Amino acid sequence: MDGLEFHQRIADHAKIEWAGCREGETPADDRVLVHNGKMMSIPVSEVLGRDWQNLEAVILGRDPWVLEQQTRIVGYWSSVRNWNRGAVAQLADRQKGLYSVPEAC
User: Fold this and answer.
1) What is the pLDDT of residues 19-40, one digit of tens each?
2) Which one of 17, 39, 53, 102 counts the least CB within 10 Å of its CB?
């Protein structure tokens, strides 16, 4: 699949949104960003090497191929891969919309 076809498939998809590109230090590090409820970062080399059915299954979570999850907490996109358990738990609460503090007994 080429990049233009991938972009068009994302644009036409009801559950996936295009979120941009991120240029790496080398062309091998370049990534595309898509959003399906969570921000996903996909190496451009993986997009070019796969067909749409495989990519769609991965992005929607039906295939266990691992992508890098990204989030924008403090004004820039960053990988959650190196976060500690507490930070990951806070992100999960934010994604659920759990902003209230439970009452103490």
Assistant:
1) 888 888 887 788 888 888 888 8
2) 102
